[in-house]
Amino acid sequence: MHKIPHSYVDYFIIFSLPFLFAVLKARIQQLQSDVIVDVQHEKVQFVKASKSGIGASSGNSPKNVFGERTEVPKAGQTISKGGGQTGKGEGKDASASKSRWMEKLSQEKKTKTKKLKQKLGLEDKPVKSSKGKLMLPGTSHKTISTKAGIKTASTVKKSKTLKNQEHTMAASKHEHTMAAAPVAAANVPIRKAKGKGKASKEPAPELSEARNRAEEMERKAEAKAQELAEVEELERKLNQWAVSARPELVQDNSEARVYGDVQRSVRCYLEACVFCGDIDRAHRFLLGHHRMVSRRNLLNIGLYNIMMRVWAKKGSLNQIGRMFILIEEAGLKPNLGSYCAALECMGRNPDFNMCQVLRQMEEDGLPVDELFSHCVFRQDERDMVLRAIHTVQPDFQSSINTILQTCSSPLVKDFYTERADAKYPKMAFSLEELQERFSRQLSIEQASTITIHSVEAMKPCCLFQRDLLAVQRLVWHKALVGALREGKIILASSTQKAVRLSLYPYLCLLDEKDYVDIMIQSLSNLPPSGESLHILAKELGNRVHNMFCIRMKGHNQMVDKLSHIYNEYAELLAKDSKFDVLPRERWWKLEAEHSSGPSLLGDETHWPHMVVVELGTYLVDLMVKHMKVNSDILNSAYDRKLIPVLYHMYTFRSNKQVGFIKPHPILTQMQQDAMDTTLTFDSYVMPMLCPPVPWTSAKFGAYLLTPTKMMRAVEGANQHEILLEKCQDADLHAVLDSLNQLGNAAWRINQPLLDIIISIFNDKGSEKLDVPPPNSEAPKIPRYNQQDSATFTSAEKAHLKREVVNAKKKCSEMHSLRMDALYKLSIANHMRDEVFWFPHNMDFRGRTYPCPPYFNHLGSDVTRAVLVFAEGKPLGPGGLEWLKIHLVNLTGLKKRSSLAGRLEYANSIMDDILDSADNPLIGKKWWQNADEPWQTLACCMEIANAVRSPDPTHFISHFPVHQDGSCNGLQHYAALGRDVIGATSVNLIPCEVPQDVYSGVAQQVEEFRVRDAEKGLKIAQVLEGFISRKVVKQTVMTVVYGVTRYGGRLQIEKRLKEIDDFPKEYVWDASHYLVHQVFSSLKEMFTGTREIQDWLTESARLISKSGSTVEWVTPLGLPIIQPYHRSRTQMVRVNYLSLQITHDSKERPDTVKQKNAFPPNFIHSLDSTHMMLTALYCYSAGLTFVSVHDCFWTHAITVDTMNKVCREQFVALHSQPILQELSNFLLKKYLDSTALPMNLSLSLSHVCKECTNIHLLGSLLLWTLSHPVYAMYLLSLQTLFRPLDFFHVLRYVSLILK
Predict the structure, then answer these.
(1) 1153 is catalytic
(2) Which has more confidence, 250 or 293?
(3) Which of 220, 662, 934, 1266 has its CA 20 to 30 A from that of 512?
(4) Which tens digits make up the pLDDT trace of 864-905?
(5) Residue 710 φ/ψ, nearest 5 degrees
(6) What is the C-alpha to C-alpha distance for residues 817 and 614, in angstroms, rounded to an integer?
(7) In whole angstroms, how far apart are CA 546 and each of 178, 713, 839, 1090?
(8) Strands 531-532 and 840-842
(9) Which one from 621, 979, 1167, 1190 is the annotated catalytic residue?
């Protein structure tokens, strides 16, 4: 067959590439329009082919000089020193769309080349090499290298004959010419392919003519060299873009990848497989991901370390070595966990040489000491590592850091440094009592659930139904166990790919009985109206996860160590304690002293939201399919057949189709008739029987075994976890210590009041007293047969339909309220003879909450009323007066009266107070008309007991007295803007009579109404006599937290509907009118508030518009990030059940939510900072202190001390340049980096300068607060000038004062 001359091949290569220029350029523009990247220049070089003559097109890896097979790196990879690959993308974040564009571009390039060859008739013919193997002429393999030192080229093998050498010299000469062309300027060495040919002394005329044509083609090729250089340059930049668009590889990849949902899913899957003993499945799964380059990008060093720990336990050093090879192939670098596993394995096999591992650690810059301070140990791992090290270094001892770092915030400097006068409170328990309480709490948490008695009265006729339900539960239990067992067999034998995630290991973590108990427990809590499939699945999945975490801690043998440390820690809290340090410091020291054995802080990963929901959906599917009952179980008249007790249906909520699980009426009737006498809860629902474990880090604290997050967040969002991990430990000390202080407050039940509430609860309840009635009091749902409805008009049918909907809604609401009250009262009744504690955590803004969800002091009036301090203190000389003032505050009366006026009023109604205490249900019932009736009754009982005691000053009181903030959000805004008028209205400035901002706004709105009524405005005339403090209070309270006019109108509309005499036809017009007047009134009273809100909103808008989320740091050093992102909908399919999950995808921020939420969230963070400061300094003063956000509680005798601390810390907080520091943080965070485009950077810089002006204004007004004459002068100026001009007036006045 005729061979194609190589000059034609060269011509084809040069001629065909320009046709691809347009394709390359278009694709590059399309790619660069989506993502702005920083293109870094790298050299495109050629790799020399192996002797076998096989190029890249062969699909095989070339062999190195030692004959070992190596991988041909992909685009964006580099041959590392050890043969591994680096420069890979960071998992899912490496934008899979970019890889698809690259593959598509490459495929299109190959397709066009093939078509052009066919069109021109220049189809390449395969050429045999000297060894008989096939390759295409001109074949070369390109690679991207980030190291200039790697310079190789892949060309066709040279001939060994002399004639071929002469031809090679001619080709080399032409190659030199090409190198001098503009191609060389692009730093892309192009080498022509060398073919075979025979030399002749005198060419024939035909050959001479062919040579002339070849020379002419070569001249054209030189003319095309520039175009070729541009094409190669574009290819080079395209490949560089593919590399630089990926995040830079870090040593342990934790920052870049560990928090992705995919990586967490893989990690959780491996941990589940290992825990249930399915090592082969875990190993196959990891290898399956490793062998596929696209999935290898999802792996990080932590995932390889999981398997290394497994092989270390088995003492398999060969497997450990293979894992190190896999890590090197993945382009990762071993970390401390990797070497820890290797040393553990060697510790179990002392015959191996440890020197190589320790030497390699030293070369990698990993000190041996850090193994024991940074690694998490399970079971005997620490001992095995020490044994391995001692074989090389017999005298080695791990160093323990005993130096306590302190928080750097100036706000708590005195708290940590000046401890000479500190009086840390102790508990009224001996050491033995605290240790016994710890043992009881540990048993409850190890059981995961607790069953308590219900307070609902039992009826005699329900015994048969209760036995019937118990028998049926046994039938369901047996059916579910069999179904679960069959389902596991099917999942275990499925022929899915090794890289596919499966639910099988998650179904093997617990005993089959445990899964079934969880399902039946959820059935008891299912409301008659049904529950969302998403909510039900999430509850089931979370229960499995919590139980798994508790079993994991037991498996890791950390319970014994926890018991030992806690028993010593209890010495600090006992009444006869001699220690005088903070709980966190004591626990940290004890943990350092008992460093041997397993670590208390586990490294288990919280399951991703999708894993939790998918597992829960699988369990729901089992329940729907296999829980059945005979249709005639309650009525023998029906035909007997098995029917499901649960149904999966769809309903619409907010115009979205939502999956719903609804119980059959037979099940609902059986549960209502049975009236079960017990309730089963998860252990974390109950208060703790011992003081909580102190928070020592963001990952450890609160419950003994139950997993608890220090910072709550929305589903799927975990950016805050990244920020907390980046924080220095010392920066979080103040936050951790405040949580510990709140959690160490001991409580007990007010038994006399609880008995009264339970009696009303079992006697049809009372809506007036906020005690929900039973379901039997719910309205009957109207039912109409079709014969009657046939005679109705369309309007009548619509009316009947609305009646049915409203009746069903009312029944559902009553059931929810009844069950909520039942849970709270049953828990309170179970704890009636106990002393208990509430562990605390916080939300992403820093606001603190008790961890038990149902029963806590943040609950309703009923819940707060039955809670009192476990520790009692004498009233002292002023305690009784504070009890009386507190009583008047609870009634909602005398809001505008001074403290002396309120005390006088309390003394004038002592008869009503004593009557309420003695005859709460049959007397005058004065307490029932209060704003907080149950707390009022409890206070009446406390006052009655005190005044009837021999000496009220020595009466031991357990009652908490509240000090509530005066619209706390407005207080912070007034302090930030140094707004004199606003500060006066919220009691920041001393006044003879306490100011009430709500009454002030209502009074000003009334003045606006009178003015408009005189002008003849109809709605203003209708509102005469209806504008009260209660109508405007909620809107005034929430406007500072970002409520809009629309939301404010709805709030006022609700208040107006509660007024019986107000004409209902004017509700909409009246609410629309009033919300405008309320906003206008607030704008006049708080001039600086709106300016600060606008600045915060505009800053957040610019930041989120650039694609970043809004972050800031509180004055106490707590990092905060707003978790508002554009949600992503994902489908979960389990058998026939399908569920759409909308969760935080951690992608682009939601601009609207980010900007609207920033002002209220920022104020919330300041509010929480003030509360934490007050908690710390109250703890230092020996006070019992708890809070409900801006409402602080303490004993009556210590109210004056708490008020002093509260005011001092508020002044200290706002003496800091808060707005200036926020402005500096935003400028540094978003302008010193490439986070914002140029136009947005300039805008944000301008906005932050406005913040400086606001701070200047505030500083001047702060100075005037201490100079009354100038303050009055400035107030008069403020009434003469518009708000925008007033700033310039203040600047002029400041110059005069200087």
Answers:
(1) no
(2) 293
(3) 662
(4) 999 999 999 999 999 999 999 999 999 988 888 889 999 999
(5) -70, -35
(6) 30
(7) 70, 17, 17, 45
(8) unpaired
(9) 1190
Q: What is the pLDDT of residue 145?
A: 36
The values of phi and psi at residue 898, to 5°, are -75, 170
DSSP code per residue over 624-693:
HHH-EEETTSS-TTSPP-EEESEEEEEEEETTEEEEEEEE-HHHHHHHHHH--SEEEEEGGGSPBSSPPE
- Can you give the pLDDT at residue 283? 92
Strand partners, 144: 44
Q: Is the pLDDT of residue 962 over 80?
A: yes
Residue 964 bears catalytic tag: yes
Q: Identify whether the C-beta of residue 722 lies closer than 8 Å to the C-beta of residue 259.
A: yes
Residue written as token pair 């682009």: 1148
Token couple for 367 = 């000190």
Rounded Cα–Cα distance for residues 944 and 906 (Å): 12
pLDDT tens-digit readout, 527-558: 888 888 989 999 999 999 999 999 999 998 89
Candidates 729, 964, 1094, 1285; catalytic one? 964
d(CA 1059, CA 1016): 24
Higher pLDDT, 577 or 1246: 577
Check if the beta carbon of residue 1230 is closer than 8 Å to that of residue 1108.
yes
- Residue 439's pLDDT band, with cuts at 50, 70 and 90, is very high
pLDDT the model gives residue 921: 92
Instruction: Please name the residue that has the structure tokens 């009635």.
Output: 773
- Give me the amino acid identity at 123: E
What was the pLDDT predicted at 1245? 59
State residue 536's pLDDT score. 93
Whether 1033 is catalytic is yes
* pLDDT tops 50 at residue 567: yes
Evaluate if residue 1271 carries a pLDDT over 50. Answer: no
Helix (H, G, I), strand (E, B) or coil at 84: coil
Question: Which position has the higher pLDDT, 267 or 159?
Answer: 267
Confidence of residue 162 (pLDDT cuts 50, 70, 90): very low
DSSP three-state, residue 104: helix
Cα 1272 off chain centre by: 49
Give φ, ψ of 207 to 5 degrees.
-70, -35
Average pLDDT over residues 772-793: 78
Q: Which of 929, 1298, 1130, 1003 is nearest to 265 (CA)?
A: 1130
**Exposed/middle/buried for 1280, CB within 10 Å: 0-12, 13-18, 19+?**
exposed
Question: Which distant-in-sequence residues (6+ apart) come within 8 Å of 756 by Cβ?
Answer: 920, 921, 937
- pTM of the full structure: 0.76
* Whole-angstrom distance, CA of residue 202 vs CA of residue 1172: 100
What's the rounded Cα separation, in Å, for the pair 603 and 252?
15
Percent helix, strand and coil across the chain, each to the nearest 5 = 55, 10, 35
> Taking Cα atoms as reference points, which of 174, 170, 156 lies closest to residue 199?
170
Q: Using alpha carbons, list the distances in angstroms from residue 79 to 74, 83, 147, 241.
A: 10, 6, 9, 18
For residues 328 and 476, what is the distance between their CA atoms, to the nearest angstrom?
Answer: 52
Distances (CA, A) of 81 to 78, 249, 252: 9, 16, 18
Q: Which helix (H) or strand (E) holds 1295?
A: helix 1283-1297
Amino acid identity of 767? E
Alpha-helical runs (H) found in 493-640? 512-524, 533-555, 559-573, 583-593, 609-626
Residue from 561, 1033, 1105, 1146 carrying the catalytic annotation: 1033
Following DSSP, what letter does each residue of 417-449 receive, concatenated?
H--TT------SS-HHHHHHHHHHHHHHHHHSE
